[in-house]
Design a protein that fits this description.
With 888 residues, the protein is α+β, with helices and mostly antiparallel strands. The protein has 27 helices and 31 strands. The strands form eight sheets. The chain has an eight-stranded mixed β-sheet, with no helix packed on it. It has a five-stranded mixed β-sheet with strand order 17-18-19-21-20, covered by helices on one side. A hairpin with a 2-residue loop joins β7 and β8. It is globular, with a radius of gyration of 28 Å. The two termini are 21 Å apart. It binds O-methyl-L-tyrosine and zinc ion (ZN). Zinc ion binds next to α2 and α3.
């Protein structure tokens, strides 16, 4: 956030603060241009650390006065710190008054305005942009908040906890103003404070929990958005029920509020009892949101709700421990989504989607300039570490605990964790100790130190497996090796603890017994650089099915032949590995073509296998859609030492075109067979059918482009016009746009006219165009033109991301151009956004993380663009850290 070079903060430098703040009384006199903040704090010296001055954080504040026990006190300002050298030894009352300017706060951190209302965002270090404070998560205080504001413009005044009183302000000078006093009984770190004031309306629901307690649930949004809150409310209720049933964790507040805001840097925020959501993660109606939006909203509502225990009741000692709350809460929301999905197949679909996301986002992070451990060792801007590694890899680490101690063992570990640490700010070591101590003698407890390398070592481990059958001895020997590649600042890596869930199949696909008990599935635990496992009574060469359910976040090389992969794809009892086998068949072909520098030609065997999936009488449509979708370009790039984005794109398009043509009749049949009669529901079965129908349609339109047929584009246009829900409408529009059909232009125009007043839908309109497959530079040119569109702005993060992130991060072939125009555009946009919103700018800046793996001429041009940005003297610390790490 701050300009200039920020100091590098090191994990091992952690020290407790010199003072504790136990109680805070905050008053906000809200005004968009100048809000007055009065903070009265109860402060005490921390006697377990050396005597020192009181140093409070404060940024972009206008300080009015500082009083200790009612008298003025001498202080000095050192950079962004307010230093009081002569603070008393005994407990004291500290009062600070300052003002801030919410309407100029385009960084959206601290107190800001959006659509004429006030909102706050305090994680990670936004509270210091509201008032001076010990703004660190280990300082936990009880807060009372008084809000005073114009009653007409801001009829709703919200803060954390319970409403104590409210009314009209009577004093002269406060005409037309009203107030509300909120009190939160739970001690919390400052990053969980929240304030909202505006003209909002709420959907309300009273619920009774299993424990017999009554609660009021409220979802606050702008007038006019109320009918789009039903799904969020249902998701909230389902989350409450689930957390009580699965982990015995009840809601601890009488009132739980959720608020939507259009300008927000992330998805949502778990402020105690007052979650604040990006509207994109909250609002849904069948006409405006896709199935994917409905699923995302359910999972984000759950995620924030689950933070109430994993994050709020037990929080992080310091920001290096971020994955303590984030990895665990992502794991919990993933488990919730799987339980909500229901059937084994629907659960597998969730798992496949999560792994696809991990591979598309976290694997590249782990092999690029920003590679860092799940528990980072240093940062200069903590906002840069809300990453796929901390979140998604962190969730995989939590999943491995569960795999190693079993589901019941994990639940026992969670129980112990809360018994030990409720109300505390703790570390990842405390979590690990609780899970291990609740499971003495387990595969985890016996190798806990080695397991914890998942927190300290960056990089994705490479595991190889080599199987050998001894016909005479009737044994099958599996030999594993593992090695983790070097990452910035970490060259030597130790072996990791890798749980490999596995089974063996014979060549007809029958599961083999792995031991005398007749078990057909087992967990092998790797913890050495090399290890061997022997299976007895194996009559013939089996096909190993390893890493079922993606039991560890590693890259596995098992050298299986295409024939063996076909056995797995057709017969494995593990649906994840069935999907994986199909993906690997496709990947093998694409990589072979890329490495040989030859055009890609899909084999008849592969095409038959895909046809078998598409026409399979028992597989679910949602699974079929995933199995028939080719690996993404980012994941393909991950497999290569030198990345040529244009060559990858050409190979993927060739594969798609061949699959579209070879299965033409099957796609048409699948499209017709998966039409849904009746009203829209976003359940997994219906959304699976819509997904497969949309994939079929996109293949048919793509094929029509090649053959000159006009029937399918016409049908797609008709479907686009007539669709009764956004999934089908956007699916048909995407089919036209992605194929480059002539009807794409009128369809886009019509779509814009239909939804011009719905910002979230217009975001989709921008994103669809920016993510379209590149062809002769047309997509890039279109994006550049769209930056000049009347609806485009860099000030709204959703809108800015809809074009910039879509192009620079999700459309490699449009972005990486031989003329370097993509990089020039990137540099311009990063600098323009940085002046408005550094957090947003640094996210876009990360599009260049993997520049060093690019082939020439991309590599040199990319480096030059990064160096040009780095040469600017007035960069935010956010962007500076990203570009400097890239160049290091
Ligand atoms: N803790 C939130 C994510 C979040 C993080 C930072 C923010 O502002 C910089 C906002 C939200 C979550 O995990 O949902
Ligand atoms: Zn979170």
């Amino acid at each position: 956030m701050r300009e200039g070079t920020a100091p590098l903060i090191q994990r091992l430098d952690y020290q407790q603060p010199a003072f504790w703040i136990r109680k805070v009384d905050l008053t906000f006199d809200l005004d968009p241009a100048k809000t007055l903040v009065t903070s009265k704090m109860q402060v005490e010296r921390n006697r377990s650390v050396p005597h020192g001055p009181l140093r409070l954080h404060g940024e972009e504040l206008n300080l009015l006065r500082v009083l200790i026990d009612g008298s003025s006190v001498s202080f000095r300002q050192e950079g962004n710190e307010l230093v009081i050298d002569n603070a008393p030894d005994a407990d004291f009352a500290l009062e600070i008054r300052n003002t801030t300017c919410p309407e100029k706060n385009t960084a959206l951190s601290g107190l800001y305005t959006s659509g004429g209302s006030f909102f706050t965002q305090c994680e990670a270090e936004g509270f210091r942009r509201i008032t001076y404070f010990l703004d660190r998560p280990d300082v936990m205080a009880v807060y009372t908040v008084t809000l005073r504001a114009d009653a007409t413009k801001y009829p709703v005044l919200l803060a954390n906890g319970n409403l104590v009183s409210s009314g009209t302000l009577e004093e002269p000078g406060n005409k037309g103003r009203h107030f509300a006093v909120w009190s939160d009984p739970f001690p919390k770190p400052s990053y969980l404070l929240a304030v909202v004031a505006g003209d909002l309306v709420a959907r309300e629901q009273r619920v009774r929990t299993r424990a017999g307690k009554d609660h009021l649930l409220q979802v606050y949004v702008r007038r006019g958005d109320l009918e789009k809150t039903e799904h969020a409310m249902n998701s909230l209720i389902a989350s409450m029920v689930w957390d009580e049933a699965r982990f015995q964790l009840p809601l601890d507040l009488e009132r739980f509020m959720v608020v939507g805001v259009s300008d927000f840097n992330m998805g949502a925020m778990e402020n105690k009892g007052l979650n604040i959501f990006n509207t994109s993660a909250l609002l849904a109606s069948p006409a405006t949101a896709t199935d994917a939006d409905f699923a995302r909203i359910e999972s984000i509502v759950a995620h924030e709700y689950f933070h109430n225990w994993t994050g709020n009741r037990v929080t992080c000692r310091d920001w290096f421990q971020l994955s303590l709350k984030e990895g665990l809460t992502v794991f919990r929301d993933q488990e919730f989504s799987m339980d909500m999905a229901g059937t084994t197949s629907a659960r597998a679909v969730c798992r496949i989607q999560d792994v696809r996301q991990l591979r598309a986002m976290q694997f590249p992070e782990d092999s690029g300039a920003m590679a860092h451990p799940v528990r980072p060792d240093s940062y200069s801007e903590i906002n840069n570490f809300y990453t796929a590694t901390v979140y998604e890899k962190g969730a995989e680490v939590v999943r491995m605990y569960q795999t190693l101690v079993g589901r019941k063992g994990f639940e026992a570990g969670m129980k112990l964790y809360f018994e030990r640490h409720d109300g505390q700010a703790v570390t990842c070591d405390d979590f690990a100790a609780a899970i291990a101590d609740a499971n003495p003698g387990s595969a985890l407890a016996t190798r806990l130190d080695a397991f914890k390398r998942w927190y300290s070592q960056a990089g994705t481990p490479r595991v190889t497996a080599f199987g050998e059958h001894d016909a005479a001895a009737r044994t099958y020997t599996l030999r594993f090796t593992q090695q983790t590649p070097a990452t910035p600042g970490q060259t030597d890596k130790q072996p990791q603890v890798v749980p490999v869930v596995m089974g063996l199949l014979d060549r007809h696909g029958t599961a083999l017994a792995l031991n005398a008990n007749g078990d057909t599935e087992q967990v092998l635990v790797l913890d050495q650089a090399e290890q061997t496992f022997v299976f007895e009574n194996i009559d013939s060469e089996p096909v190993p099915s390893l890493l079922r359910g993606f039991s560890a976040p590693v890259v596995l090389h098992d050298g299986l032949s295409d024939a063996a992969l076909l056995v797995l794809m057709r017969h494995d009892s593990d649906p994840f590995n069935r999907w994986e086998a199909g993906q690997r068949l496709a990947l093998n072909r694409i990589l072979h073509a890329l490495r040989a520098g030859q055009p890609l030609v899909l084999s008849p065997v592969f095409i038959d296998a895909m046809r078998g999936v598409l026409n399979h009488p028992e597989l679910d449509p949602a699974f079929k859609e995933l199995a028939l979708t080719l690996p993404g370009e980012a994941y393909i790039a991950e497999q290569l030492d030198v990345v040529d984005p244009q060559a990858i794109h050409a190979a993927v398009i060739a594969a798609q075109t061949q699959l579209a043509s070879a299965l033409r009749d099957d796609w048409a049949a699948a499209f017709e067979a998966h039409q849904i009669q009746g009203g829209y529901t976003p359940d997994p079965v219906s959304s699976g059918k819509r997904a497969l129908a949309n994939l079929a349609l996109s293949m048919l339109v793509l094929d029509a482009q090649a053959t000159g047929d006009t029937v399918w584009p016409g049908k797609a246009y008709q479907r686009f016009k007539d669709a009764s829900n956004m999934t089908d409408r956007l699916g048909a529009l995407a089919a036209l746009v992605n194929a480059g059909a002539e009807l794409a232009a009128p369809a886009l125009e019509r779509f814009h006219a239909l939804f011009k007043d719905d910002a979230l839908v217009i975001d989709k309109w921008f994103a669809l165009q920016a993510r379209a497959p590149e062809s002769e530079g047309r997509v890039f040119a279109r994006v550049k033109a769209l930056t000049k569109h009347a609806d485009f702005t860099l000030k709204n993060p959703n809108r800015a991301r809809s074009l910039l992130a879509s192009l620079c991060m999700f459309n490699p072939a449009a972005f990486h151009r031989t003329d370097a125009a993509g990089y020039v555009f990137w540099a311009e946009q990063v600098l323009a956004v940085d002046a408005i919103n550094p957090q947003l700018a640094s996210r876009v800046a990360r599009a260049m993380d993997r520049w060093a793996q690019l082939a020439e001429p991309y590599r040199s041009a990319a480096r030059e663009a990064i160096a040009r940005v780095a040469a600017k003297s007035d960069l935010s610390t956010d962007v500076r850290e990203i570009v400097e790490r890239a160049l290091a």
